Model the fold of this input.
Amino acid sequence: MKINTLTGSTGSPQASSVRGNTFKLIISLIIPQLAGGLGSFFTISSVKDWYPMLEKPLLNPPAWIFGPVWTTLFLLMGYALYLVWKDESGKSKRLAYFAFGIQMVLNMLWSIIFFGLHSPGGALIEIVFLWLAILATFVAFAKISKPAAWLLLPYILWVSFAMYLNYSIWMLN
Done:
């Protein structure tokens, strides 16, 4: 067994790479789930008392669908981030990370505005910026990893639908 005197590692470079990629995958998957968890903190009480009282559009999905959809979207976002992070092409990732971070903050902020502040109008303005940030993330990710960008497609489609719901709720109430 060889021991690397610089790192103290007994593993091969491939084993080290696998451990590094596993770490990147775990962190990448956790980041969006944490953002979703923080956003849901402001959602929970309003879903029980305020949201059911609102007039909703005809295409409003049943309440139970939102949890599984958002969990799936956060997993896709996380895996997309992982694909960018593990890319070794030498392309700059600064803009991709920045755009990803901005859209995650805006994602949390939407929940705070809509559910926490009970402000569909304010959330409607905010969701436009969220949509643009997702688009920017898609473009930035595509320059590094096309599969990573395509993993964001369901997210931007869902947020497009959420924008319709947000607008309709604002107009109906």
